[in-house]
């Protein structure tokens, strides 16, 4: 009965050097300017917002970079959000406008169907929503 147990001592020295990786915060950089494929034409979509609808409510564009020009033709503040259909995962959003104001934002969309809506108060439920079809 010669139990001979060797217990190798594994000494793990974990040198944790702090700092270094500072996680970049939320989205903020909206300039993926490294695309080499030439964009044929810059697409611009103008949407008029009133109480309570988007005009036009149906937009069709080609995949790529699209600039949305928004005009608040109503009496209330309005904005615009874009997300893949059925979700609220914004891929683009505009600042809130005041009555009579305008704003614009640029978004890159892949082929698919997207919802767009005004996120002010319950404007979406009141009709300020539409569909973007990207081909
Ligand atoms: Cu609105």
Largest sheet: 5 strands, mixed
Mean of pLDDT: 82
CATH class of the domain at 43-134: Mainly Beta
CATH architecture of the domain at 43-134: Sandwich
InterPro entries: Cu_oxidase_CS, Cupredoxin, EfeO_Cupredoxin
Domain EfeO-type cupredoxin-like: 36-134
Protein name: Cupredoxin domain-containing protein
GO molecular function: metal ion binding
Short description:
By secondary structure, this protein is mostly beta strands. The chain has no helices and nine strands.
How is this structure best described in words?
The protein is mainly β and 135 residues long. The chain has a domain at 43-134: Immunoglobulin-like (Sandwich). It contains no helices and nine strands. The strands form two sheets. It has a five-stranded mixed β-sheet, with no helix packed on it. The protein has a four-stranded mixed β-sheet with strand order 2-1-4-7, with no helix packed on it. The protein is globular, with a radius of gyration of 25 Å. The site of copper (II) ion has 6 residues, from loops.
Core attributes:
Immunoglobulin-like; binds copper (II) ion; 135 residues; mainly beta; 4-stranded mixed beta sheet; metal ion binding; Cupredoxin; EfeO_Cupredoxin; Cupredoxin domain-containing protein; 5-stranded mixed beta sheet
